[in-house]
Amino acid sequence: xxxxxxxxxxxxxxxxxxxxxxxxxxxxxxxxxxxxxxxxxxxxxxxxxxxxxxxxxxxxxxxxxxxxxxxxxxxxxxxxxxxxxxxxxxxxxxxxxxxxxxxxxxxxxxxxxxxxxxxxxxxxxxxxxxxxxxxxxxxxxxxxxxxxxxxxxxxxxxxxxxxxxxxxxxxxxxxxxxxxxxxxxxxxxxxxxxxxxxxxxxxxxxxxxxxxxxxxxxxxxxxxxxxxxxxxxxxxxxxxxxxxxxxxxxxxxxxxxxxxxxxxxxxxxxxxxxxxxxxxxxxxxxxxxxxxxxxxxxxxxxxxxxxxxxxxxxxxxxxxxxxxxxxxxxxxxxxxxxxxxxxxxxxxxxxxxxxxxxxxxxxxxxxxxxxxxxxxxxxxxxxxxxxxxxxxxxxxxxxxxxxxxxxxxxxxxxxxxxxxxxxxxxxxxxxxxxxxxxxxxxxxxxxxxxxxxxxxxxxxxxxxxxxxxxxxxxxxxxxxxxxxxxxxxxx
Length: 491
Ligand SMILES: [Zn+2]
What we know:
The protein is of the alpha/beta class. Helices cover 27% and strands 22% of the residues.
């Protein structure tokens, strides 16, 4: 391949102040985790879409007529371009999850191995720390166990941790011999004891297709046994490695870099849809999607990567799943590293890899906590009791930004004299929502951390002021009102 080189948000009631608590550390709903890598896919394409200067034969090596290529991938704005290239990533993952690495908006994701090519990158993400001895792709068997090998030792995961990747070097990186992981890699034809007609057809294709790249097949050939394996064997922890985005860049074919990037996005969607349709995976599966290294920039260096090509250390990391707050494209956040991926994979399935392997970097906290940082935030009502004057009041949301530290309050307009407040995740998006009671009852849906949609009036009782009790699972009890019966607010 020419790879040259928390559970959230219990509300603790105390007077009129409520705490939005994230209990930190581990995800609660995720039971299965999938790490997906598209080799050498630049953050530039992820965040800005196709690069105009490369949409031609001269600098982009395109065999496709420029006009056709532009029709496929060129759009006037960055946001349209990236959505055209990666419809699932931007239409679903970035809406319901988080994505790091857009340096233009203050989010940096990097490899720390100092080499910025494949084996050092896969080693860093899979073991949690760089190994300076690994200085070539032909390094041989990885001396350090990966987080996948580590997880496979637990009873609940044993035999259900798998590596599916096009590159044959994954056999060494994940140490096939020692780790005993389920592996489908390189040109090894998928074999089954009892072959169906389509199994036999797939095996014949593997056995007879011209090996344009002797290190591995096209991505589409991996997708077939991958989906079959997921449906039949139901793995708990899965690694998926696609290679074409790197291969075509090394070949200097920007048209095929874009086509394979677009297909990669489709393959991720296909895997997501397949898993979400299965009861074993629905609403309890997290995807971490990333790349092993960046590449150079400009008219020539986009083809290659490594220490020579400046910027090759820059990557991107996206996460979607039931425990990750929908904060979308992250901006102005602390940098994240590739080494953090290993402990993040483990944390999603409830295991503390960093404690077991202290050299490994800590998990990426913001994707594991529904409030985004693991500290409790506070919501207060500012109504005075007894009312001094009647006038519009507010909820005050103090988002935590560290232990015992809070941002300046964000005000959310409420009605007249709100007196009661309760919180529960009423629309099941992982973010706690608020219900306040004044002389009516209003619902404030939290759309991203500390941001609430305009209130929806649930009850406009006028003279009756209902009380609200602490939430139970997914609903808030509308307590005895000053008048009227007890009710429940549910969605
Ligand atoms: Zn690579």
